[in-house]
Every structure is written in structure tokens, then in C-alpha cells.
Amino acid sequence: MRFTDLGYVTADCDISVPRLKELIAARLGSTALPIDPTRVRLRERTGRSLAGVLLDCRTLATALSSRIVDGREVVLQRLDHAESLSEGDLLINVRVWRPQEAVLDPAGPETAVRASTTIAQLRALAAARLHVPPAVVVLSKASAFMLRDKAAIANLDAFKLRVDASAEAVADSIGRGRLG
What kind and span of H or E run contains 91? Predict the structure, then answer.
């Protein structure tokens, strides 16, 4: 993953995450390229990859996975929509699977949903994002190792989700809990 250094913002550990977004927007935004703090997701950076999301209901100290030290890096993700994440939210990726070709398309942008979201609601969300009728959307759960194996991708049909399952149950079944 590639990162671009945008600058530095000094913040107290007790600052709320929404207030931190406002500070970053004020410091880094410009008239030519304004940053709307409600259209930003903050994440921890660990080495060369992204880590957890900083939830809007927390302070900087409670949002980070380890203690705050000088030089700690936070990644700013610009969004095309306003977003406020809390502990009852999940981030999911909607990917298109073409079983005839055993191809799973690259992941699109992450989408935030409530953990209580039903599979029917996820199907409707995916259909809207993909511009197809909900009836043609089949949701499958897949572990990361399966997505690297072409033979496993061909068998995703075996991992269809129950219509009455919630997003939280699906996340728990693949080893991921709620955000936070």
C-alpha cells in the first residue's frame, strides 16, 4: 500500500475523533482542495499497512490500539459520503464473483453497515452498489486464504449466507467482530 505524507497535526490524547478530523481538515485542507471532516475516515497505520478504524465515539487515546507516542501515524481516507462510525458498525467489501470464469473481482471501497444489518439488507445494498436487481445477488462468506486460491473461489457457492443471518453473525463466523 502506498501512503503520501500530508503533514503533521499536534493533538492531545483526550481529543475526540470527530474533533481530530476537524483539526486535520483545517490544517491540511485548502480553498483549492477543501476537506470535509464528515467525509473522512481515520485509520491507524502500522508499518506499510492499515490497521483499525478510529471510531467517532472515542477519544484518540481510546481509539488507538496501543499507547500514544510522538510520531504516531494516522491515515486519512477521503470518502464520497458522510460517515460516523461507532462500536456497532462493521466495514465490509462488496466484490463481484463470476463463477463461470472462477474470477473474483478486486475489492471496491469498504462500506460501513450496522452489525444488526440482515442479509436481505446487505443484498439490497450490494444490488444498489452494483446496479443490478437484488434477486441476482448471492452473498457468500469467504476467508482471506480462499480468495488467494482459484480452486476455492470456484466453490464460493458452497458458502452462501442464510437469508436470516445478521452481518454480526456473519462477521463472527469468519473470525471478525465489530469495529472497536
Answer: strand 89-92
